[in-house]
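2.7 Reproducibility. Because tokenized structures are sensitive to small changes in the input, we list the exact sequence used for Argininosuccinate lyase, including any N-terminal residues retained from the expression construct. No trimming or masking was applied before prediction.
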Amino acid sequence: MSAKLWGGRFEKATAGIVDAFNASIAFDQRLFRQDIRGSIAHATMLGEQGIIPQADADRIVEGLRGILADAEAGRIQWRQDAEDIHMNVEALLTDRIGEAGKRLHTGRSRNDQVALDMRLYTMDACLEMKAGVEALCEALLQTAEAHLQTMMSGYTHLQKAQPITLAHHLMAYVQMFLRDRERFAQAHARAAVMPLGSGALAGTTYPLNRGRVAELLGFPAVTQNSLDGVSDRDFALDFLYAASVTMMHLSRFCEELCLWSSQEFSYVVMDDAYSTGSSIMPQKKNPDVAELVRGKTGRVYGDLQALLVTLKGLPLAYNKDMQEDKEALFDAHDTLSICLKVFTAMFETLTFRTERMERGAAEGFANATDAADYLVRHGLAFRDAHEVVGRLVAYCVKENKALLDLPLETLQTFSPAFEADVFEAISPQACVALRNLPGGPAPEAVKAAIAAAREALAS
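Resulting structure tokens (single pass, no recycling of outputs):
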């Protein structure tokens, strides 16, 4: 006869290799907090409903709180022969309080139990990631406020395009991370639906008060279909997608910091505490932290893809395949958590070489569009102005000069519309200041964007 808690149907024990293959306690033990929280709420409701004696419910709750305290303190060794965290907690409870512990599972299946645990875990993870994104946004906002006047070149195709400010560039990432924050808030809302009471797939005949359990656990709603209640993992996919997009944004930023810290750009200097060296080249200072965050992005993408593929062919309701949801979720959570923390710390220690950035803004014809706009303001059609400045840039390339290096007389050979005020009009500072529209790079516009971002973070 099987010694398993579910072993009444079986006449012999499962093979050892099957026990090892089937067990999930090695990774799902990290759900112990969520599992015990759910069990305390379930037992409380069972007692209130008179489904089990109130004295037994009280003993169960007291026993579960003791297990939680011991688990938090690291005093529990989880048993592989108990398969998973649910069976471990129940077996440990029964060992401690006796027969009353066997009543805990009344009106409940491991199917709706694990669905509850996963939702609680995902809700906690969403709040943690949201806080991590907010901390990064605050670091970016503080740096942006300090660099409202720091000129640099904006790029398209990795070619110098138009002058902007460092503050404006950083605020682009703030916008990305604010969207990430919103995605985690949305994922939290979709996870916050209480599935307990769905049973294995068809609910239960016991008079459960699902609303009471939801209230005790802080859920605003309960699931509306028992089949879906146990088989839904969309909320986990929502988290994984939000994590993947956040990692993508971190990766893009890391790519720029890798470029900016190169000698060719020399826009930033990485702090020694967030750089590494070479075992053979003594001069090297490598941006390994940024590179590793960039590299771990693919890992989180893989977690999302793994769960999508796991779920794609599953019939209703619960299938053992769904045990594979946990490692993907846990890995993405762990990876994004450390990446947000280390990236924020790295960013806060960066040294920006503002003189190099400002010199770069004056080079590479980043003011060419403004020269064309100047001609438009002096009567030329834009297409004609575009052609004039294009020829002017070609001339400068041959002569190894910048637009601001040319005398007025030379400019007027390309168009008599050029006047003495052109040099002020196409300076990097003027190019930026004239773009004073919502979302633009002018300091006043960026100040407004910073204020709006702070308001969004406070909401």
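The longest strand covers residues 159-165.
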